[in-house]
Amino acid sequence: MVVSLLSGLTFKSLLDVLVYTGKSDEKNKAYWRYNHTGIHVRSWIYSDVWDPSSEGHKSVKQVRLIHKSVAQRIAKDLKKEDSDKWVSQSDLAFTLVGFVGSIVIVPEGFGVTESQDLNDYLFFWRVMGHLHGIKDEFNPFGGSVLSAKRTVYDMAQFCLLPSLLNPPEKFESMARAVSDNYGLLYPFIRYATDLALDNNGSYGESVDESYREVIAKLYPLDSKEGKKQLAVMKWTYQTAYKYTIFRLIFDFLANFHLELIKLRVRLATWWKNKTGRNSLLSL
């Protein structure tokens, strides 16, 4: 998720919205903001989003209300009537691709085999895109698997890579706010770009191979920690994830972590209601 999230921050329209909200521009804020996102995503996966009483259904409604509210606030603050310009159909499509795009074009880079699993995975996210307000004609996963691969490939080669060469303002500071909770920034970027360039020309027009050298200079792995982090990521995603036992362990740890986050939120809310003061648990 971190690899995809950091890649998504290269899209200026998405970054502008995140900068405006001010919810993820510091390490601590980003930690809470994106762990809450993880809780939302988990509810979509593990509950019946079509059941109005389910956690997933309530989550989807909440997220849509948040998107609508943010778009209206930005339009009002900028004194522009058209709130559809913010959190637009293209923004929602970019966000959806950000969640799953890397796995779509390079499934082996995340331990996924080219099988029915990928078809099912795309179907799930196609439905989630629909539920979050993406019209069918703008849903990047509305067609075949090959069509989805070509769409994501084009976005990676002609949006992601050029944006990393000339990133939007605030990209690095916002990206570091996220990555500082999990490791160094540059290994995450290099993993994403290596995957894109290793599959150069696989699903569309090729880009200049000089991108690889330029990106290596812009986002160098000068330290032993950076090189080690990239090596661990490659082993985890490309080797360990192939085996069911490792996936079960990682899933358990991720779910346990999110349950702890939910518990901290409940305790912090209880403390604030009882005393009127913020709890250290909310830090």
From TrEMBL:
Pfam families: MPAB_Lcp_cat. Transmembrane segments: none annotated. Keywords: Signal. It comes from the Eukaryota. It comes from Oikopleura dioica (Tunicate). GO terms for molecular function: oxidoreductase activity. This is ER-bound oxygenase mpaB/mpaB'/Rubber oxygenase catalytic domain-containing protein. Residues 1-21 form the signal peptide. Residues 13-137 form the ER-bound oxygenase mpaB/mpaB'/Rubber oxygenase catalytic domain.
